[in-house]
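Incident log, structure service

09:12 report received: a user says their structure output differs between two submissions of the same chain.
09:20 pulled the input from the user's history:
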Amino acid sequence: MTGYGSGSSESIDYTLSLEIRAVNGRFFEAKVRLPRSASSFEHFVKKRVKEVCRRGNISVLVGIDLNSGENGNVQFDRDAFENYRSILATIEEDYGARLDIDKVIDMRDLLQPKQDIEFDPELLKTVLEKALSQLDEMRSAEGFVLRDDLSARTTALRNYLSEIEENWKQMSSEIRKEFESKITKLLDGVEIEEVRIIQEAAILAEKLDVTEECVRCRSHLDQFEALLDSNEPVGKRMNFLLQEINRETNTIGSKSNHLGIIQKVVDMKDEVEKIKEQV
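09:34 re-ran on a clean worker, output below:
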């Protein structure tokens, strides 16, 4: 799920700010940009972010701004600039791709304090927790909206199943009569008890019965809806249940040539695809 969070805190010498952005992704991937003085904390930041965001593409940007009175101590990092320029020149020479240096460099990477500042890891933890709290709050709000949407779609699937069952009840007796008529014509001139014809017609009609598939679909929907209230990662289990619902829906469609049932099968498959996009 998507989300954004930020935090900032001051020490005597500087203000530490942190921004974190999250977008949807099947797996966890985090990109962290830290000032040089805090580069050793990249693993800590990624580890803590993963504890809160188990999946998604996450970007974290940390910046240090010297407090008032210290700005005169900022200097241009010529070595870093020359290193960037050398890399861009190599790319252009080897691959013919020309990149604008201002599109690649963040100025904060080129401005360094003349004197080393003492980086406070506790300050980093503080701003990180602030940002993660905001991010988690936003993602939770989106999660509740998503849950309501999925719940509405599973309700729609249940309604389609009810309509399919109603259609089947209306047409099942007609199907048996149709089979009885066909069997009678095929056995024209052959002596056979009427009860046997009725039994054979019932057996043939039973092969087209979709009640069992509807029952299994409802069972899968029960399990799916139970997962909506889970606090654990449930994406894989949801996808499995959706595959099973889709399989049962296909079986219903293959068993029937009734226009009403076929239309509901199409509606169900469309609804399942919409749910898959969200899961």
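09:41 both user submissions now match this output. Likely a transient worker issue. Closing.
09:42 reviewer note: The first helix runs from residue 42 to 52. The first strand starts at residue 3 and ends at 10.
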